[in-house]
Amino acid sequence: MPRNNRVWEIEGRRSLALLFRLEVPHGGITSREVQQLLRSLTAKHGLLSDDEIVASFLKKNAKGRADHLEVRTLTDGNGAFSCYECGSNPYFTARVKAREA
User: Fold this and answer.
1) What's the pTM value of the predicted model, to 2 decimals?
2) CA-based angle 75:44:21, to the nearest 5?
3) What does the alpha-carbon distance between residue 94 and residue 20 come to, in Å, rounded to a whole number?
4) 3-class DSSP state of 89
């Protein structure tokens, strides 16, 4: 897949229902920014309270830490990157794919 023909496909779902889908040019956003975007969407659509958001940013072993905004890296059967995922319900994913014509 040519580099300039790739996009990040961002999806939001509640259970199996698609909340939204959008594409962002792959070169227009970094992996780190995509992960932060997923956290932001999860906080917004998950209706997290201020306390839940703050607890999600505490250090891993800190008392009161929550994993509401933890971004998971999913891999395929060969261990290669598949997508990022954040949230439980709703949840948001980001994967790299070829731009549709």
Assistant:
1) 0.90
2) 55
3) 12
4) coil
What is residue 2's three-state secondary structure?
A: coil
- The 10s digit of each residue's pLDDT in 4-44 is 799 999 999 999 999 999 999 999 999 999 999 999 999 99
C-alpha distances in Å from residue 15, one per residue of 28, 75, 80, 85: 29, 21, 26, 14
> Quick check: 6 and 26 in contact, CB under 8 A?
yes
Beta bridge partners of 23: 9
Please tell me the distance from the alpha carbon of residue 86 to that of residue 94, in angstroms, as a whole number.
Answer: 9
Q: How many residues would you count in the chain?
A: 101
